[in-house]
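help with this:

***
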Amino acid sequence: MLTYVEGRNTQDIDLIMALSSLEKLPEIKVTKRDMYFARGEYEGLQIDILLTENPLFDEIRQKYAAERHFQERNITTATVEGLLLLKLYALPSLYRQGSFSRVGIYENDIATLLHDYQVEVEDLQKELSRHLSDSDMVEVKNIVAEIQRRIERYQKGSTSKQP
């Protein structure tokens, strides 16, 4: 997010990697792990690891990654489309967990990316439909529609204020 959204601040780093690659990094102290996620720590920095055992995460690693310049070096990051897929994929679970503050952050990230970049949301929804249940997809589509209405209200409001 830091490479795409100005002013976005975060306290952690998210990585997409295979479990076999994670196991080759003893400097990352894994504190929690399940089938598709791991959480680790490196010198006080929290690292959230999205494991490629999840087909969507692996697809993002392969299809939705690009080199970006960040902090005086080039690093491979998720594209805007990849970030949107990750954020939209996570939202139904965050709602079920009742994590209101995280839902707000994710929805704001989605809104900012959709506002700032030209993205074919329908294509992303087709991609997500292969990885989410039908009921989760209905929820994602409703959330996206609500965010798009919010963006439209903002755009109408910002153009009407100009002389």
